[in-house]
Amino acid sequence: MRKIKIIFVSITALFFVAARTVFANGGGGTPENTTFTLSSPLKDIGGIPALINALITNIVLPLGVSVATIAIIYAGFLYVKAAGNENEVKKVHGIIWWTLVGTAVLLGASVIARLIEGTINQLRS
């Protein structure tokens, strides 16, 4: 326990000691350009349907595919770890099954979002 404390304190001290020195601009006076603009990250989004589609396409799908891949790899490790034990193999089959169902729902989400977007656009016309 004492070794762990010493290692933790040493690493923490290393982070504080290794920090670089920051020097402020000592020139004085006022800066030439003092304007600040905040641009909207949603300027390219045309409305709620496009926002939903962009969220699914740019955030949900990549994150979900990563999680699904990790879940399938984890299930593979559990399958190897089961080593023929029927109860463990049944658990692993359930994990693999629900991972594949979740992946299908995830991939189907973009199709559903496009269908909803098309329906909303038809209702607007």
TrEMBL record:
Sorted UniProt keywords: Membrane, Signal, Transmembrane, Transmembrane helix
Annotated TM spans: 48-80, 92-116
Signal peptide location: 1-24
Name listed for the protein in its UniProt record: TrbC/VIRB2 family protein
Native source species: Candidatus Lloydbacteria bacterium RIFCSPHIGHO2_02_FULL_51_22
